[in-house]
Structure formats: C-alpha cells, structure tokens
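If your schedule permits, I should be very grateful for your opinion on a structural question. I would ask you to consider whether the tokens describe a fold that such a sequence might reasonably adopt. Thank you for your consideration; the sequence and its tokens are set out here.
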Amino acid sequence: MTIASIALPACLLICLALGCQRGKERAVVIEPGATRAYDEASPVDPFGAGTGAYAALRDATDAALALGWSGQLEDFAPWLEAETEHVERALALLKSLRVGPGDVYAVANGRIARVYERIATALTQASADAEARGFDADWKDQEGRLWEQANAFWSRCARGCSTGGPHLDAWDLRCRAGVANSQAKLAP
C-alpha cells in the first residue's frame, strides 16, 4: 500500500464528516407564493455571528424592526426619529463591511432593506392618514425616495446572495422577493 492510497480515503472520510455538521442547522421551509416568502422575518445568518461590525449592524436593524409604530399619527414623528437613528447607525456599520466576506455584506444589505421597507410602508400609511385629516405633513411625498432606498439595498442583497453559494439560498429568495415588492411600489 502506498501513502496516496491511504491518504485519499482518509481525506474523503474527513470531508464527509465535516460536511455532515452542516445538517445540524435549522432547515428553511420554502412554500410557494411570493407573499409568503416576503412576509417572513429575516432568515437566519448563514455564516454564524460574522464580525463585530456585522453583529452590531444586526443589533441595530433588529432594534429598528422591534420598534412598533402604534398607527396613530401623533406617534409617527417620534417613531420615525428612532427608526432613523437605527438606520444611520446600521449604515455607518455597513461601510466597515464593504471590504470582507461578500456573503456578510450581502446579508447586511438585506437587513437594512427590511428597515427601509418598514419605514416606507409606515410613511405611506402616515401620509394617507395626514392627508385624510387635512394635515400638511413635513414627510409628505417622501415614500418614493424610501422605496427607492429599500429597492437599492434589496438589489445589492440579491446580487450578492445569487453569487455567494448555496448557504445563501434563503436570503437570496428573501431578497428577490424584496426587490419585486419594492419595484412594484415604485411603479406608477
């Protein structure tokens, strides 16, 4: 027996054993229909915790998504202010992720897109409520700009996830659904 004939099977066994550990992650269920994939929360991070900057960005976006607007027009401005602070923090952290693993950067863009989308949706509702009550809100006609921002972040996420490998499949589906939804909101 040669060393090569022993090393090759041993290498295959090690690769198989390491590959089996991937199956311990939570499975992602994909159901038909864009609205189902679109309405769900963010998929899990496919790469673990990522860097310190990514963990801080995830915390900022999660905090923004955890803030609930009551739906009352009087509560909108303070809610928007808090959301804006979280977005600005996330954007500052995103800059440090531009150089590094592409999968982390792609998912970070998706997380920010979710926040912009949420703000755009609330702004659309608040603007309609303000107009119905005869108010001239200072955020009037800003929905389109926010939907454009959401679309840009969703697009970066979809581009990065489509070339990042199969571990990003759940995020790829989520980001593509986000692109489709935000483009529909931009259509005249």
Notes: The chain has a mean pLDDT of 80.
